[in-house]
Amino acid sequence: MSHTKRKPKKDSVLLIGDIAALDAKDFLFSVDTAIRCQGRSDYDAMPVEGKVLVTLYEVMTALEVGGAQSLLEGAVAGDVEDAKGFSRLIDARELSAVLGKISSIFPGGIVPVDQEIREGFMEKLDFSTEQFLVGIFRDWTLARESTLVNLKDYCLSKSDVLQKLINKRVRDRSEKRLDQNLSGPADLSILAYRSREAGDGLEAMLLMPNNVTKILEIVAREDSPHLPLFTSALYSITAMAAMDLVRAGSRSSTVEKVKEAINLAESLSSPRVKLWAEKSAEMLSSPNPAIALEWIGRFKF
Hints:
This protein is mainly alpha-helical. The protein contains 16 helices and no strands.
């Protein structure tokens, strides 16, 4: 019997031009998700346009979720000096000022790249410096909207380079998933949303709040061959809802979608789903930015 080599399954590709009308927050989330940096070596190989987006988006997300002190205590702080230069490059003066204030507490006004050195310095902060860092969050909230717009405008101006990077990501992911097949109608129902809502293939769709109940139904089926992937997506969506609570209170549509899924989980018999519902209810009642970031970090496509 002869065997033919399977061709990589083609993914839908996010087209930057198609999402240009989105507000800055949703636009940047979509492009950053499509690019998804895979570690330091991947970052170093990126064109500078990709580094600008990835670095500034990560730093802004850390500021948004946990403020200046949380930013400095995490691994993202190693990119603050790059972010200062990139913020000037995109003319985000308010963000540049915020990062300048943050780095001013370190000798020479430079945030150490080495996490151990940085943590050792942070452990010795006096109360007045800690309060100074707490106060910077207000500066960030004032800088947020203009910074998002500046970064979106930069991405649109460099759309040709970023589009090539996104296309490469899709090709690379397709090669890695030669033997990965979705099974069952529930899995296929998510795929149906690809061109209609997400435009970026399965990875972006799995992080879309509108799909949370469909993902929940897949996780409830113990025979699904992709349980770790879909389960980590559930926790990531809950984490995004928790971030929204920190930023905007209970008005977030993501929060509402997760609450609907928690209610649905009561009618399902899966222990895995029950555990997610319990932890998600706890997260929404008392958002924990550190745990939320950990949940998002577990999502690996």
